[in-house]
Amino acid sequence: MAKHTESRALRYAVIGAGMAGILAGIRLLQAGEAVTVYEKADRLGGTWRENRYPGLTCDVPAHAYTYSFEPYAEWRAYYATGGEIQGYFEKTAEKYGLMPHIRFGHEVVSCVWDEDEARWTLGFGNGGTATADVVIAASGVLHHPRMPEIPGLESFAGRAFHSARWDDAAQLDGARVGVIGNGSTGVQIVSALSQRAERLVHFQRSPQWIMPVPYFEYSEEQREAFRRDTALIDAIRYDKDYWASINRFTQAITHVDGPEIAAIEQLCLDNLETSVKDPVLREKLRPDYRAACKRLIYSWSYYDAVQRPAVFVERQRIAGIEPEGVRMADGTLHALDTLVLATGFHADRFIRPTQVLGRGGASLDDAWRVRPTAYYAIGIPDFPNFFMLNGPTGPVGNFSLIDIAERQWGYIDQLLDLLRRGETRAIAPSHAAHADYEERRIAAARTTIFGSGCASWYLDATGVPASWPWSYEAFADAMAKPVLADYEVRAAALA
Ligand code: NAP
Question: Which atom in ligand 1 lies closest to the alpha carbon of residue 344?
Fold first, then answer.
């Protein structure tokens, strides 16, 4: 490794003021670094700003869905609502003094690496530019809504909109509402609207595995106890049963014939059998693929919701949308006032459409022509000093992305130390290390439950699961210490 003894003050650009960008910003400020967070919107929060649908809840226990350094006594229930989580991020950014460092209304449209200067130039949608030694791409995963290609959608006379673009003017109470989509979002919306709509039609192309989970509210006495003693919060966050369940879950997805996934399937099937009384409805709701192949749904309320008199589960193919409503393949018309499209996201975008040009003009679009990928989900060969949080090939599943991002930050911070100490001015994973990682990852990913034959956003365009294919423990171990031999370091312009 090229050694240089002079330590350097670095300037950091963080792209995105969502959960991960706030984390990076706070950590850099705490370390006394010069950081600017660029945010396209006029408010922080990322996914929690953009999603405001009725029933929005995070299905990770609230006390486990916080930064490790900022426990929060105020959660009203075991699972937090989207609004509460948005409030938590706003309070946390304020408390740690991050707000003056966020440039709102700054959409980053380009990042261009200058090899001689060993720095990035960022271009903004508003025409300005800025430079930084290090870019932290924390631009999120599920932020480009996927609209369904259904003939006649634009002809609908009522209000039709994507779940992440909630239309506050839409009629819900006492109205005829349709929800297309049966992922975590559609299930939460249907659960929330089942007692509000006059008629609620849940259009399901694929039924889901529904994992029963506890739900309870915290009393004011409990919150007061959390305020007095954060050890009580830690006891929930670091509860050994909770972590055992995460490890079991990752065992389940990585061992498709193992006892863990069989146990999950049995739990969900028992839930279906015991919760849904009508045998016709029960068969409509019975999944025909492996559990956890699509993201497993954790719900304490969905099966109750679909058995309410106003709710109808529609499993037929949608033939088209007409001004009055949704026409099914058998000719049935569901007349509707409001149509919610809970049809998911383009999960392969990450920082794109931002144009990212690395060493020698290498473009991220070219590097990601087959699939978005990054060495250990963090960095990309030819894109020095460019690090991602919640980037491609990281773990996905039913656990906290905050914990993922914190572990990734711990890893990135160790690489940054090399830059800070002046040991190098540019660091990126080598092509060989990245190729080896991808070869091993893809081989393992094909054998995970995600690759067991269903369609989901977990798959890349070639049908290979796009995520971390090993255990959570393996991820934690990998993030604990970077293998520096896998990185190319250059003294660029120091000589
Ligand atoms: P999603 O899981 O991708 O689900 C999209 C749904 O839309 C699927 O049921 C899909 O059916 C259906 N669909 C898509 N196009 C369709 C079409 N043309 N006609 C009929 N149906 C169509 O999207 P999501 O529910 O928004 O969830 C995305 C992710 O966000 C989740 O997996 C999760 O990671 C995250 N999320 C998390 C929480 C939480 O509580 N932590 C809550 C909400 C979302 P097929 O299955 O047949 O393709």
Answer: 23
